[in-house]
């Protein structure tokens, strides 16, 4: 029963997390301008990191990394404040590494322009499958000069309406599944609760209700907790209502069977029970001298 309940609970929590995640994604995606803005900022951060690492490779740790210019939704440029040397092989790895970290599209064209005449000094084409990309002249170092790097993404950077519909369908399905799991979980809990209530032992002692399974005495909706030994003693007395139970029997069942030998502990716990039952004058625990105790309910 507990194992099944835990499974339902885990499934429910997992569904809620997925719904929250997809709902968040859909909120970001439902507005194309928001999507483009988010994408643009991620691209700019990644390209600025590339710029920083290129300057560091040129042992320039003081010049500022210039802002990345957005040419259009898929094209970005970064210039440098001073002349730099570019190793194509390192440039390819720098861009690829930083784009992967940012989870940017894996298909793009990189062009390195000379500031003097705006001619392309180096360029390459990267695809999702690296072996299908075109990366020429990787070992030819570009001499120290003024350069601008332009990156153009060849994939659509925004979500299509088909993707919107897919997200909404998934969200609706997950909401339905979550509701079903929640109802099943609640039903399971209710059944479990009803089963416990149905099998719970409830004894009446005068104006008190005695629940030995929970070590509780109830009177006028007020609950009193009993210790384990108090509960065991009271249960034996209730089972032998209006009959004398010998001291030897009480001590044996409550203490000695548990490997403990007592002297005056029995009298102490009987005294505690009397105090808890004192609100009902029809209940008495009498001492049968030299024999034992008797629970009397008039």
Please write out the topology:
Elements lengths: L1 H28 L2 H26 L11 E4 L2 E5 L4 E3 L1 H14 L6 E7 L5 E7 L15 E4 L1 E7 L7 H39 L3 E3 L2 E4 L4 E4 L2 E4 L2 H12 L4 E3 H8 L10 H12 L6 E6 L3 E6 L1
Antiparallel strand pairs: 1-2, 2-7, 3-6, 4-5, 4-7, 8-9, 9-10, 10-11, 12-14, 13-14
Helix pairs in contact: 1-4, 2-3, 5-7
Brief overview, please?
Residues 200-297 bind DNA. The chain has helices at 2-29, 32-57, 88-101, 161-199, 228-239, 247-254, 265-276, and strands spanning 69-72, 75-79, 84-86, 108-114, 120-126, 142-145, 147-153, 203-205, 208-211, 216-219, 222-225, 244-246, 283-288, 292-297.
Q: How would you characterize this protein structure?
A:
- The protein is an alpha+beta fold and 298 residues long.
- It folds into two domains: 31-153, no CATH class; 203-297, Arc Repressor Mutant, subunit A (Orthogonal Bundle).
- The protein is built from seven helices and 14 strands.
- The protein has helices at 2-29, 32-57, 88-101, 161-199, 228-239, 247-254, 265-276, and strands at 69-72, 75-79, 84-86, 108-114, 120-126, 142-145, 147-153, 203-205, 208-211, 216-219, 222-225, 244-246, 283-288, 292-297.
- The strands form four sheets. A five-stranded antiparallel sheet has the order 1-2-7-4-5, with helices on one face.
- A hairpin with a 5-residue loop joins strand 4 and strand 5.
- The longest helix has 39 residues, at 161-199.
- It starts with a helix and ends with a strand.
- The model has no long low-confidence stretch (mean pLDDT 81).
- It holds the Pfam family Trans_reg_C.
- The chain crosses the membrane at residues 167-185.
- Residues 200-297 bind DNA.
């Amino acid at each position: 029963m507990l194992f099944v309940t835990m499974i339902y609970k885990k499934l429910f929590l997992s569904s809620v997390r997925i719904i929250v995640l997809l709902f968040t994604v859909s909120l970001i995606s439902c507005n194309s301008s928001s999507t483009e803005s988010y994408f643009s900022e991620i691209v700019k951060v990644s390209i600025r990191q590339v710029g920083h690492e290129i300057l560091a490779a040129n042992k320039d740790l003081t010049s500022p990394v210039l802002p990345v210019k957005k040419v259009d939704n898929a094209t970005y440029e970064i210039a440098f404040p001073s002349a730099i040397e570019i190793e194509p092989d390192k440039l390819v790895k720098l861009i690829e590494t930083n784009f992967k970290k940012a989870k940017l599209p894996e298909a793009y064209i990189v062009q390195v322009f000379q500031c003097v005449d705006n001619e392309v000094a180096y360029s390459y084409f990267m695809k999702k499958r690296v072996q299908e990309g075109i990366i020429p002249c990787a070992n030819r170092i570009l001499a120290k000069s003024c350069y601008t790097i332009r990156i153009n993404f060849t994939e659509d950077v925004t979500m299509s309406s088909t993707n919107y519909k897919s997200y909404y369908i998934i969200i609706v399905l997950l909401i339905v599944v979550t509701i079903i799991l929640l109802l099943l979980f609640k039903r399971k809990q209710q059944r479990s609760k009803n089963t416990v209530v149905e099998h719970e032992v409830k004894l009446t002692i005068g104006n008190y209700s005695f629940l030995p399974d929970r070590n509780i005495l109830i009177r006028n909706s007020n609950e009193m907790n009993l210790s384990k030994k108090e509960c065991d003693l009271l249960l034996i007395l209730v089972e032998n209502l209006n009959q004398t139970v010998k001291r030897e029997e009480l001590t044996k069942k409550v203490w000695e069977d548990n490997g403990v030998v007592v002297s005056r502990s029995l009298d102490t716990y009987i005294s505690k029970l009397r105090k808890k039952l004192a609100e009902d004058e029809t209940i008495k625990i009498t001492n049968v001298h030299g024999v034992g105790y008797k629970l009397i309910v008039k």
